Amino acid sequence: MKPNPVGWFEIYVQDMPRAIAFYEAMLATKLEKLPTSDPETWPDLEMWTFPMSDCSEPTYGAAGALVKMGSCPSVAGGTLVYFSCEDCAVDAARAAANGGSIFKEKISIGEHGFIALVFDTEGNMIGLHSMK
User: Fold this and answer.
1) What total number of domains does the chain contain?
2) Which pTM was predicted?
3) Domain span at 47
4) What is the pLDDT of residues 38-81, one digit of tens each?
5) Which residue, of 64, 82, 85, 107, has the greatest Cβ tally within 10 A?
6) 89 falls within a domain
7) What is the end-to-end Cα distance of the chain in Å, rounded?
């Protein structure tokens, strides 16, 4: 297995406009609608991607999207995704200011930096990681 083996992630949501607004505000970024490859097979599928590089560019980290699909509910306690940021305390505060909540304030993880854990507007717990 290669280092940093995650190649893609999906965060399932129930209210896409609310989830987009939350993640764009918390991460200070813009999400982009991902066209559905087969609308007949997946009529209730809606995906919005986080900023990502072209597949031809080797970069650090994994690409992913918010996903709304009737058969896949959002639930707390599923896979935990960590977003890299400059200062996880700042992003955690933005999460709380935009309809989410802070589960664990910024804490040190020693030489690996700091983390904070927050809930998004859909009930998903997400991690925030920074080196300062």
Assistant:
1) 1
2) 0.84
3) 8-130
4) 788 888 889 999 998 776 666 777 888 899 987 777 876 677 89
5) 85
6) yes
7) 29
